[in-house]
Amino acid sequence: MKEGIHVQISPFSQPGNFYKGNIHLHSTRSDGTMTPAEVIEAYRSRGYDFVSLTDHFLPETHFRKDADPANFITVTDTRDLRSEGFTTILGAELHGPAMENGDIWHIVAAGLPLDFAPLAKGESGLDVARRAVAAGAYVAHAHPWWNSASLNDALQVAEFAHGVEIYNHSCQVGVDRGEGWYMLDLLSQLGHRLYGNAADDAHFNKPRHSDGFGGWVHVKAASLDPDALVESLKTGAFYSSTGMHIHNIEIEGDEIFVECDPAEKILASGNGARYRREDSENATSARFSLERYHEHGFVRITVIGKDGTKAWSNPIWLD
Question: What is the CATH superfamily name and number for domain 17-239?
Answer without folding.
Answer: Metal-dependent hydrolases (3.20.20.140)
